[in-house]
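dumping this here so i dont lose it
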């Protein structure tokens, strides 16, 4: 037999092959030393030299010299200077990989903790082994909000396994779908509209919440959360919360179950008239404002309406938002309760004394009071009087002599003014005030038949306005200028010309005076005629009339 002579290279390869076979496997060893100085643990695995494990791999585990442990040979060395490199953690992982292999082969259910969200799904931890769960296999029914299950430990089945590539794919859906179907069928057999059942909040949306009833989800719409108004579902519920709900309806074919939380409690309008009596003053919270009023809630599901006209005794409120805002706590008086239509009429202003009653009792027409100008309009100025109500000075009541086009010509906002009360109508909540009435009406200085001197202004074809001596105005119509017919008054009068005329009409209340030059001329002519008549016949003797001629005749006769 011919023996082949081995080269040194062949010997080295053989040794390396043996070493590789002895590495990458789990063996048992005994701890012979714990070197805290070098952060190592020496373990005898039956080789020429002891192996080394980093101390941090056993951190938190109670070990002592002499204990037996399983380790994984990471690297095998043949010399004493380089001891074998061992790993306790890898040994545990190898055992775990064996378990995963068995779970995959036998389709066993295992627990996985969801660590984080990644593209396409979730990363899970299975006793130290990382795996991947596709988004389509997260739960059953599928969980749409993947962030809601982070840190949750769930049952899974391994659907892909490759130890060499360290690849594990798991399915939560596959582990529970059969059980969910079974529980759903059992649940459907027990469900009926009106049934009260316990459930767990699994998801929250803007329109409502999904409730797990034990293998199947029902929808609790936001409108079914409370008898009162709910802005956000999150204000009442949170994921994981256990609640009791009432089944409103369900359809086994479409797997849709409608739930209600509010119907598990008594309807708040039952016997509402016993709690809310007309005339009572109560406190409530403003839940909404509109242009016609404000809604005030007393308890969830029971609210009333304060119409804009019932918000204030004094302010003319156009929109409820000008007086109240959502969230305000407000006292209201109950005016009327309609239990059948679930309506309550309320008033804010009637919780306070009516200032108009006080005004009517305190003042009378003709009284002079002082107030502050609050705002101006084209037709007048509003004045706040001490009782807190406002009166109106119309522009026609601001001046006797001046034609006021806008109230700002006479008063300004914040001015304190003295006024006279012209009229009080507490029922309609109106007070008419005047400034000009504080003074004598200058138009009363004139009466029909007075002869006055005035200056012309604003001469038109058919008439002219005249400035009277005390600042008031009169009007001369073309027909009252002369006995003779004229076509255009402008041909006979000049601006700022002083003329003498006669007052033919005077209405002080309407600030109107009409004058005539023609009538004055007729008066003068009549006076002249009277004077002539008087000189010719008025009390004269016959001798007075013909005396001269008679004396002449007498002298002739004497001769």
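and the seq i came up w/
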């Amino acid at each position: 037999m011919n023996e082949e002579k081995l080269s040194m290279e062949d010997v080295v390869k053989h040794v390396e092959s043996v070493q590789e076979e002895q590495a990458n496997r789990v063996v048992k060893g005994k701890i012979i030393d714990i070197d805290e100085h070098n952060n190592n643990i020496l373990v005898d695995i039956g080789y020429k030299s002891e192996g080394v494990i980093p101390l941090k791999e056993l951190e938190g585990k109670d070990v002592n010299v002499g204990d037996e442990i399983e380790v994984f040979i990471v690297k095998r060395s043949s010399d004493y200077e380089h001891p074998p490199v061992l790993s306790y953690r890898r040994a545990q992982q190898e055992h775990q990989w064996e378990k995963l292999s068995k779970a995959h082969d036998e389709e066993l259910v295992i627990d996985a903790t969801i660590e984080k969200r990644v593209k396409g799904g979730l990363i899970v931890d299975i006793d130290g082994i990382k795996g991947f769960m596709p988004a389509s296999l997260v739960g059953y029914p599928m969980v749409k909000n993947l962030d809601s299950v982070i840190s949750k430990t769930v049952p899974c089945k391994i659907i892909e396994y490759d130890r060499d590539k360290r690849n594990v794919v798991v399915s939560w859906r596959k582990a529970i779908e059969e059980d969910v179907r079974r529980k759903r069928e059992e649940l459907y057999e027990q469900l009926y509209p009106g049934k009260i059942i316990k459930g767990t909040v699994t998801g929250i949306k803007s329109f409502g919440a999904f409730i797990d009833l034990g293998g199947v989800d029902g929808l609790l719409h936001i409108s079914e959360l409370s008898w009162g108004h709910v802005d956000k579902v999150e204000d009442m519920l949170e994921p994981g919360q256990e609640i009791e709900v009432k089944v409103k309806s369900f359809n086994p074919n479409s797997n849709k179950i409608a739930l209600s939380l509010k119907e598990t409690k008594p309807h708040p309008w039952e016997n509402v008239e016993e709690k809310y009596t007309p005339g009572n003053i109560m406190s409530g919270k403003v839940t909404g404002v509109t242009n016609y009023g404000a809604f005030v809630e007393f308890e969830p599901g029971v609210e009333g309406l304060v119409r804009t006209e019932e918000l204030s005794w004094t302010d003319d409120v156009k929109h409820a938002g000008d007086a109240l805002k959502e969230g305000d706590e407000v006292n209201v008086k109950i005016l009327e309760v309609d239990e059948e239509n679930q309506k309550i009429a309320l008033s804010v202003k009637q919780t306070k004394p009516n200032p108009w009653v006080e005004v009517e009792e305190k003042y009378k027409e003709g009284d002079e009071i002082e107030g502050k100008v609050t705002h101006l309009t084209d037709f007048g100025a509003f004045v706040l009087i001490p009782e807190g109500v406002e009166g109106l000075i119309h522009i026609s009541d601001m001046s006797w002599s001046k034609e006021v086009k806008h109230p700002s010509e006479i008063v300004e906002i914040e001015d304190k003014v003295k006024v006279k009360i012209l009229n009080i109508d507490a029922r309609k909540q109106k007070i008419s005030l005047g400034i000009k009435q504080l003074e004598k009406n200058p138009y009363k200085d004139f009466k029909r038949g007075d002869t006055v001197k005035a200056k012309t202004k604003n001469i038109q074809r058919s008439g002219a306005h005249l400035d009277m001596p005390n600042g008031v105005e009169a009007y001369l119509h073309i027909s009252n200028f002369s006995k003779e017919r004229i076509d255009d008054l402008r041909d006979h009068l000049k601006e700022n010309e002083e003329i003498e005329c006669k007052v033919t009409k005077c209405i002080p209340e309407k600030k109107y005076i009409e004058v005539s030059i023609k009538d004055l001329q007729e008066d003068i002519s009549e006076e002249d005629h009277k004077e002539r008549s008087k000189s010719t016949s008025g009390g004269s003797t016959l001798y007075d009339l013909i005396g001269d001629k008679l004396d002449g005749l007498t002298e002739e006769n004497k001769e």
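Residues 14-21, 536-559 have pLDDT under 50 and may be disordered.
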